Amino acid sequence: KFNKKIKKILIIQGSSDPHNNLIKIFGAIRPIISNNIKISFYFHLGLKNIDKPQFKKLFFYQKYFDNLIITSKISNFSKVFEQCDLALTACGITALDLLYYNTPCIYISNEYKELQTAKTFHELGIGRCFGKISIKKQKKLQYFLDDLINNYKLRLIIYKSMQNINLINSKKNFLKLLS
User: Fold this and answer.
1) Is the pLDDT of residue 47 over 80?
2) pTM of this prediction?
């Protein structure tokens, strides 16, 4: 289901987040979280990340932001995918799950293969490729996210492109995307 107004944003970097991108993403979008109290921001840490010391910062800020939700163990992740209106994700298997649910995405990764996939998805109009996250690129990520939150037409274009890929020769298209 496509919502005109964003209610829920998922931020996920796979099950291990080897480059600590979640913390970098949080640092970049913290002003957006603060200014959009009607939007829930779900940071999914993955099973392996819950005890990492760097995530103490996220748990600390959770006290101050009612719209910041931190998850690590979810038994039925398909419901999360189905309910989110937008996602910031790496471009691995999770990106394909989000594509299946027609969830507009910003693709953020440090992995070469994932960056190539993100560029392909961007060219196909099924998301926006941000690339690698760094301190220097925080304002750019704010712009990307603000644009998708506030630009209904852009999200609708991405959503419809995702629907087209899912509906027309879906098996062939998924195999083509993965190659």
Assistant:
1) no
2) 0.89
